[in-house]
Amino acid sequence: MTDASRRAQRARANLRALTPPDVSHAPASVAALRNGAALLWNNPFNDATAWAGTLDTVGLPDAVRSRHATLTAGFAGTPAVVALAEAAEEAARDVSLSKDVRERCEEIGSRSRLLATWLGHYPSALVAMHEADLAAGATVDDAERRLLLTTRAELSYVAHLILLGNYDANRDAVRTEVRKIVWGDLGAEGELVKFWQSLDRPRGAVRDDTGHDPRDFAPDWVDDDFLADLETARAARRAEGLVVIESVAHLPGTAKDGVRPTGGGATPRAEFASLAGVRLRCVPPPDLPAVRARLVSRYPHAAAVIDRILSLAVEQPYARLRPVLLVGPPGCGKTRLAREICEGLGLAVTVYSCAGVSDASLIGTSRQWGTGRASVPLQAIKRAMTATVAIVVDEIEKAAESRHNGNAQDGLLSMLDHASRYHDPYLECDTDLSGVTFLATANSLAGITDPLRDRFLVLAMPAPTRESLPALIEGILQDLRAELGQDEAWLPALDGEEQAAVVANHRPGGSIRSLRRLVEAAVASRTVLSPRH
Length: 533
What we know:
By secondary structure, the protein is an alpha/beta fold. It contains 20 helices and nine strands. One of its GO terms (molecular function) is ATP hydrolysis activity.
């Protein structure tokens, strides 16, 4: 066994030993919380009350004991927890106290800061994040460092939500879901670091006779201009298009590759002959700053999400994104935003709802069945006659878990892993789906298998804020005009009184669907209240 394999084996064993259970039945210690332990009943208020009841303050300074008494009296709110943290931290710095007392106060201060973070206190989140970072730097154990770095990223994520005003301390703090999200982000950051470390590696000594660096991978005649021309040629080739289906000659029938049969197609061969052997166009990259400006004007509360997704399209040879999963509460605009991002990239969009789906028809069904059909992406490519299309897999967590007739999540996993050579069961041949963009939405990560979740960049979709309502209202009006075939002259913007009424009746954290109903009611009231002549 090599040193690397021994290290990996030890790390896995330690990770299993150090990872706390998903549910806590008693208040956890600071060390356990930093390793990812759940709050009591996943609720910071309940955890604070229970923890205060178990805390032994005998022998501690009066300031700490009085702040603790406030907590035990039932005032387990943010001010009381922060006050206890500040008193304990001040006592921990008092060198006149014994070492044991200072260490106990330090423990109380650290745990109070963690609690205050989940109660929505931004300064405490910064302190807790700093302490998790110090703990990660002090350990040499791979497993413990992973857990601590994940906690640091988790606290940073919560602090970001607090700063944006999108954090709700009254909701259950399910740490496992947040930690899965931030672990994916850490992986993406790690890949970027490895990439730049490989580029920034120390150069070898230059030979005096030729000037060639022995660490260069290319022969002497390959210079920077040659490599730039080579990359330009490759990009141009990719931009020419993709051959999605090489041939359908293996299927029964007489239709020829690349020829559209007269009278339509009643067989799989005739149905897809027009695509066979044809290099389909790829949608060129759009003006990303212009796309961003339009999207942010319509969804100002989701600006960070929009920036992260559009960053994936930078320097791509054609319009395409890596798989992205938007997670957020019902009605926060996930599907709407996913569709508009893809439309902004110039892609034809197909929304495939997984709610109630109990089979794997997403990936196609065999032609041995009377209801056989090609995969949903291949059908979308055929409709658009472009190799780059977008599939919005809506409410992916609601797909049935049974595998009796196939499973949508299992099928999607196979499609993502083998996109460039996906074997379509209907055509019984490999198809190139590498130009397809997959965006998925979910109300929560529960119900999504871990392997599938690992294939997506998981982003949290924030709920609309009060400040974003005017922009969202205008976006809804634009949608209504398009649906009704009217322009702004026939369907003008809401006046001050109408907009104030909509904003006043929209509850904080409410969905965009409820906001649309309010806007529709305001528009309908114009007809009811308008004078008749």
